[in-house]
Write a structure and sequence with these properties.
N-(1-d-carboxylethyl)-l-norvaline Dehydrogenase, domain 2; about 0% strand; mainly alpha; globular
């Protein structure tokens, strides 16, 4: 089986018994969805305060906030590009599964539950867009835009 997996992916990590790979996927999706919400909320605050979106991105990617999620989502925000890579509606489905499994296991998901609620508030309007479209909810609430103000 490892040889088959190596033909379709890289960085194959054995997680243990059957189903534990799914637990790793749930952990990853919980982290990235929470990061998307935190990035959206922080950018909204800074832009509402008056900082230029491009300047903010330069600060964040050179600071401790730097992450894979920041560097994959913010450039798209600056281009006003929410074409789906991983649809927001699918992240909602995954967050439902994550919080349900966590409840069954007795594992707290205080942040996960809040992130799930935020994504669900965005689903009707932005469900077919990229999961980063959660930022559009914040932008609409605050009356700001993450779109780059510079011509590129």
């Amino acid at each position: 089986m490892p040889k088959i997996l190596e033909t379709i992916g890289k960085g194959i990590v054995y997680c243990g018994a059957n189903g534990l790979g799914l637990a790793a996927k749930m952990a990853n999706n919980l982290i990235t969805s929470a990061q998307s919400v935190a990035i959206s909320e922080a950018m909204t605050l800074a832009i509402k305060a008056g900082i230029d979106p491009d300047a903010l991105y330069e600060v964040l990617k050179g600071a401790t906030a730097n992450s894979f999620t920041l560097n994959s989502k913010v450039p798209a925000f600056l281009r006003d590009d929410y074409n789906p890579g991983f649809k927001l509606s699918l992240m909602c489905k995954d967050l439902n599964i994550i919080t349900s499994v966590a409840k069954k296991l007795g594992s707290p998901t205080m942040v996960g539950g809040l992130v799930e609620q935020i994504f669900h508030m965005c689903k009707e309007e932005h469900g077919e867009k990229d999961s980063g479209a959660v930022s559009l909810f914040y932008q609409q609430q605050a009356g700001v835009s993450f779109k780059s103000r510079s011509e590129k």
